[in-house]
Amino acid sequence: MKILVCISHVPDTTSKINFTENDTKFDNNGVQFVINPFDEFALTRAMWFKEKQGATVTVVNVGTVATEPTLRKALAIGADNAIRVNTEAIDGFSVARELAEVVKNGGYDLVLAGRESIDYNGEMVPGMLAALLDFSFVNACIGLEIEGDTATISREIDGGKETLTSNLPLIIAGQKGLVQEKDLRIPNMRGIMMARQKPLTIVEPINSNPTTSITSFEKQAAKSACKLVDNVDELISLLHTEAKVI
Amino acid sequence: MSVLVFAETSEGKFKKSAFEVTSYGKKVAEQLGTTIVVLTINSNDPTLLYTYGAEKVLNVSNDALKTFNVKIYANIIKQAAEKEGSQVVILDSASNSLYMGPNVAVNLDAGYATNVVALPSATSPFTVKRKTFSNKAFNNTVLKTPVKVISLAKNSYGLIENEVSGSIEEYSPAIIESKLSSTAIEQTTGKVTIADADIVVSGGRGLKGPENWGMVEELAEVLGAATACSKPVSDLGWRPHSEHVGQTGKPVASNLYVAIGISGAIQHLAGVNSSKVKVVINTDPEAPFFKAADYGIVGDAFEVVPKLIEKLKEFKANNA
After folding, report:
1. Which end of chain A has fewer CB atoms at under 10 Å, N or C?
2. Does the distance separating the beta carbons of B267 and A139 come in below 8 Å?
3. pLDDT tier at B170 (50, 70, 90 boundaries)?
4. With helix as H, strand as E and coil as C, how does A73-122 read?
């Protein structure tokens, strides 16, 4: 089984979010980038298929050379090889079109991605990729088993879960539950050394036109100070008369 | 020309978000100088949509569509959008809508924006404000394609009554094949879900153990709220993962969020700060949650929460 894992290169979750150039660009200054946390669940599940079922695992990112350390980290965790599509990721649709080329050329049976990236939160690339390729797709995936050519998948729905089946090829957008948080892996020294020798192929983009563009950013408005209250009567009264939520 | 809204049903009933997207779609149609068409599948009473401005309803009734299928549903939306010449398609942010949104966008070769929080700030170019950086910021996004698909963030626009004398068209779209099939659906019944709740009551590690969740559940029951928890609590197995709210858990955008014994790590706040009013109960006055909350009580949850339950019961009895 050939697995492709889509890796997004995102600011670490604790990063301070600032903008530059008149609030039109994200300020990378002093920001540490990591594998998107949702993609880590997907990568960890892929490693399980590699170790238990002999799958090969390729990781891919659409981005500039700045994203390579993040791909190397995925290799250090255990992916076999990496592909970087050499273009800046502008919008979800154009990223999905670039990835569709990678999938077509690589003949993958299974594509794993995170449900969303924690920076732009578009929640669209895996679903668009599936629609472009006419592969089966499951979003918000919290369980995945594969026997031969058949996948059993569970997804989170509002207030519960649904179980689905499909033949491969398949694309899933994973989240916590696909693997447990405690099973996520930190690269060890041997992995980091080996990652340096693993192939990282650079692919030129097809340059599809972005369908959207970001014109400006705004930070959350500063909020007023928390009102500290001494007793529950006062709290109930404020929630009723001031906040009007009960 | 039209604005197409998809109003989702659950067992024949509209979700609150269906009325919210209809309210929103009516206004977008006015901005564009066009009309609104609302598509719904297997609704018990599509006329309910008139209250929120649905001038025309495309009503699909078909037992084959009882169970949601991403490809089939997305294709029906495409057929409806093409039939109605829709230039904007509006979805809500329920799990099925977020599932099929990307497919709808590809079907219509449309730019797609999720997490939209307000009416378009301009219609030419079509510009929407959306949440980004896990609720820490917003961006203004231009959709450059002839057809645009947007999904409205939950509880960001509200329900706006705008009674119209609408019309219903019975609609029978073609139903395509899908290789993906649903084998089982497990749904917790009788409990308010985090996605639908107006109020969410959430507990953290400060509650010391799963045996102490009785008071969280009781408080939720008094308030008609859903229960939730912080990431450490679900990682420790005190509560199911489906209750984990925060950056890598479920997003919360309720009217009221009550955090009990949760310190307020940045990842937790990212997931809950779309809630309109936040209350924190914590023994540590330095807990970061106090900086993000609207109201706070510095105190021991084991003393405060039982009192709060008792007083809320009195309040509910007096205000019933």
Report:
1. N
2. no
3. very high
4. HHHHHCCCEEEEEECCCCCHHHHHHHHHHHHHHHCCCEEEEECCCCCCCC
Tokens linked to A10 = 């995102």
* CA closest to A163 among chain B residues: B184
Q: Which residues of A touch B266 (CB under 8 A)?
A: 13-14
Contact list, B298 vs chain A (CB under 8 Å): 228
Interface predicted TM-score (ipTM) of this complex, two decimals: 0.96
- pLDDT, mean of residues B238-254: 91
Burial A93-110 (b: 16+ CB within 10 A, else e): bbbbbbbbebbeeeebbb
Question: What kind of fold does domain B199-318 have according to CATH?
Answer: Rossmann fold (3.40.50)
**B132: nearest CB among A121, A137, A142:** A121
The CATH superfamily label for domain A2-217 reads HUPs (3.40.50.620)
B2-170 matches B199-318 in fold: yes
Nearest Cα of chain A lies from the Cα of B290 at a distance, in angstroms, of: 6
pTM score: 0.94
Is B315 in contact with A121 (Cβ distance < 8 A)? no
Interface check B51 vs A, CB under 8 A: no
A7-66 pLDDT, tens digit each: 999 999 889 999 999 999 999 999 999 999 999 999 999 999 999 999 999 999 999 999
Compute the residue count for chain A: 246
Q: How far is B289 from chain A (nearest CA, A)?
A: 9
Contact (CB<8Å) B307/A227: no
User: Is residue A198 a contact partner of residue A80, using CB atoms and an 8 Å limit?
Assistant: yes
How far apart, in whole angstroms, are the C-alpha atoms of residue B2 and residue B37?
Answer: 7
Does B96 sit within 8 Å of A175, measured CB to CB? Answer: no
pLDDT band at A221 (very low <50, low <70, confident <90, very high): confident
Contact A122 B185 (CB under 8 A): no
Please list every residue in chain A whose beta carbon sits closer than 8 Å to the beta carbon of residue B296: 226-229
Domain locations along chain B: 2-170, 199-318
Q: Which CATH number is B2-170's, of 3.40.50.300, 3.10.310.10, 3.40.50.620, 3.40.50.1110?
A: 3.40.50.620
Looking at residues B192-220, what average pLDDT do you find? 94
Question: Residue B164 class from Cβ within 10 Å (0-12 exposed, 13-18 middle, 19+ buried)?
Answer: middle
Cross-chain residue pair B295–A235, CB shorter than 8 Å? yes
Mean of pLDDT values over B54-68: 97
- Give the pLDDT confidence of B123-161 residue by residue, as tens digits: 999 999 999 999 999 999 999 999 999 999 999 999 999
Res. A222: pLDDT tops 90: no
